[in-house]
């Protein structure tokens, strides 16, 4: 075999080995990022759990972790929903924050691609209810009730929205809905 041909074959083998190594390295990096995203999402949820138990100030930390999860894996749907919930709780803890607005923005984006996502509907209606946007919240609570007729928290919020809109038929509506559920 001629030296030029041999060099070409060696070069081709070396290039193929580098390409294969690059693919393996890329896959390993993707697995590492996915693992990191799951870890950050779980940590964010754990912080929200502490928030639900009344430990103050954890919603901000949850937002940081969930945003980090989404930097690792931008299409991580569960982390995005959890981020919407964390922003909602941020709004509850600090009424001067933009938590409710950010929650609404995130959740509306989710509902744009997943219109039957009950968790996104429910959290969005809660954010709107907190902002006293009773008409918009009522629409979201109706969506939750249509998707999950047995969802009892949405019945409570539905009654409060009706009351906020000055409607006196809240008890009748709830009794009728509870009877059908």
Could you please describe the fold and organization of this structure?
There is one protein chain. By secondary structure, the protein is an all-alpha fold. About 80% of the residues lie in helices and about 0% in strands. It has helices at about 5-50, 60-70, 75-95, 100-115, 120-130, 135-145, 150-165, 170-180. The mean pLDDT is about 80.
Report the average pLDDT across residues.
80
% residues in beta strands: under 5%
Q: Give a quick account of the main beta sheet: strands, pairing sense, barrel closure.
A: none
SSE order: HHHHHHHH
What gross morphology would you assign? elongated
Q: Give the count of helical stretches.
A: 8
Radius of gyration: 25 Å
Outline the low-pLDDT stretches: none
End-to-end Cα distance, whole Å, is 82 Å
Helix content: over 70%
Which structural class should the secondary elements be placed in?
Answer: mainly alpha
How many β-strand runs?
Answer: 0
